[in-house]
Amino acid sequence: MTPNIGGITGPQIRPGLPDSQQPRIDGAPQQPGKPLSSIPNGTVVNGTVLEARDGGAYLVRVAGQTLTAQANLPLLVGQHFRAVWDSSGDIPVLRLSDAEQALLGKLSSGDKEVASALITRGLSLDPKALASIRTAWAGMGQQPGQLAPLAELWARGLPMTAANVQVLSWYLSLDEERTSALWKRTREGLRERLARGDDPRRALRSLLGRDDDIASFLRGHGLLSSPSREGVDPSLLAGAFLPAGDDERPLHARIATSAFKRGEKSFWTVSFEMEGDRLGLVAGDAETDGRSLSVVLKAEQEASFEELRRRRHSLRHELEGIPLALQNVAVTHGRRMPRVPGRGLDITV
């Protein structure tokens, strides 16, 4: 017998069971007219960090809801996470499971915090990752706020320098209003230089060469637009943000990229997620081998799915104008989930 919890049916929580045997909420679509009233204490949830709040709190999306929670693990805006939902106190807390806490207990004190930053991203705790991040962190003074950016840089194979950590920390602290304003100034700066006859690459380099917020913004955007390491699902990492539309409060699309091989052939993927008051959650993947292109769009809400499906042929017509052979444009209904399951806890202790 399984209870219905606010429209989502799941196994009953049994006191005394370890976290690994408790039910999971994987961000399933919310049933219209049946909002999830609460998430049971001890449930393992998958979610996305929407915004950082004062006092160590975060605005997160879990199981079709936007909720506020504290966290005792390192998180970044835009990051997908998997954690235990601890609602035993006045404010819910995102924490590691008992099994993960036990694993951390076997590590040296210098590795525990580093491992926590990797675990929350589903990254493997291999000795090379731990050693690389630990060494870089020690050279920066071991400030707690540096760990999440370091994990993001390692997951992309980027230099773990103090300058990159500082840029990422600043970029991911920006709210939607500030991000929109910086994108507007960036576009205006590029248009001005292009109107003077500058080459686009030269115009972009001139913006990057400045010592101001625009240059920092573009550097942060470039870091988070870099493909992840082989075997690391980019959807589990923080992503760059792009404005979608020119409204007073435009939607922001979270962008992630990846590069991989199938046999001897190389492929590149650009993925996005965005959420609007009327659209709900919409996501997509564009994959190319440099010659052909395949596009898959996914909408969580039924109405958005129908609208995308109705406009699919218009999108196909527009994409046929690019110098790639269009193989497929598909529209599906549901929620895009991370492609790599599990937490990758493969450390030897």
Polypeptide structure, described:
The protein has 349 residues and is of the alpha+beta class. It has four domains: 17-95, OB fold (Dihydrolipoamide Acetyltransferase, E2P) (Beta Barrel), CATH 2.40.50.140; 107-155; 161-225, no CATH class; 227-349, no CATH class. 31% of the residues lie in helices and 27% in strands. The chain has a six-stranded mixed beta sheet. Strands 4-5-6-8-7 form a five-stranded mixed barrel. It is globular and about 55 Å long.
* Number of DSSP E strands: 14
Structural class: alpha+beta
- List the secondary-structure elements in sequence, H or E: EEEEEEEEHHHHHHHHEEEEEHHE
The description of the largest β-sheet is: 6 strands, mixed
Provide the low-confidence segments as ranges.
1-37, 339-349
The amount of helix comes to 25-40%
Mean pLDDT over the full residue set: 79
| Count of individual domains | 4
Helices, by number, come to 10
Strand line-up in the sheet with most strands: 9-10-11-12-13-14
Q: What is shown here, in short?
A:
The protein is of the alpha+beta class. The protein is built from ten helices and 14 strands.
What labels describe this entry?
349 residues; alpha+beta; OB fold (Dihydrolipoamide Acetyltransferase, E2P); 4 domains
